């Protein structure tokens, strides 16, 4: 896909809105002084970074298009947020968090080149058929 490809989704605004809400959640969680207690499954800090940036990159490749700007944006965002944490006076900058973010971006982008890239289109079609004109 590229920028000239028409958007294939009936609910494109919804999918993109969900994506930006996820970005907002990552920004807030990255900069709040005290993080909420994570579920024990995701208790490891690097796993949270990895998972967040993998999901974000994959979601944006699904809801917009596979384009170099999404991985670049998320690598820059993850790096910037991590650096900003060092200025809070409460949290610190961790280069391994930046590495985990970047690894997540790489995995998210890699997933966008698998058959999973069609998953949102299939769900959008199903939702469109289920709701008809009432949604």
Automatic annotation (TrEMBL):
Lineage: superkingdom: Bacteria
Spans through the membrane: 12-35, 47-65, 72-92, 98-117
UniProt keyword list: Membrane, Transmembrane, Transmembrane helix
Family annotation (PANTHER family): DOMAIN PROTEIN, PUTATIVE (AFU_ORTHOLOGUE AFUA_3G10980)-RELATED (PTHR28008:SF1)
Protein's UniProt name: VanZ family protein
Organism: Methylococcus geothermalis
């Amino acid at each position: 896909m590229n920028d000239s490809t028409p958007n294939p989704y009936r609910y494109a605004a919804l999918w993109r809105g969900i994506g930006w809400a996820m970005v907002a959640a990552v920004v807030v969680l990255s900069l709040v002084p005290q993080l909420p207690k994570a579920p024990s499954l995701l208790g490891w800090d690097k796993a949270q970074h990895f998972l967040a940036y993998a999901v974000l990159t994959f979601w944006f490749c699904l809801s917009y298009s596979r384009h170099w700007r999404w991985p670049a944006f998320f690598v820059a965002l993850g790096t910037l947020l991590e650096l900003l944490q060092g200025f809070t006076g409460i949290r610190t900058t961790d280069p391994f968090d930046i590495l985990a973010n970047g690894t997540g971006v790489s995995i998210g982008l890699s997933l966008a080149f698998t058959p999973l890239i069609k998953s949102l289109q299939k769900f959008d079609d199903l939702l469109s058929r289920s709701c008809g004109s009432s949604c």
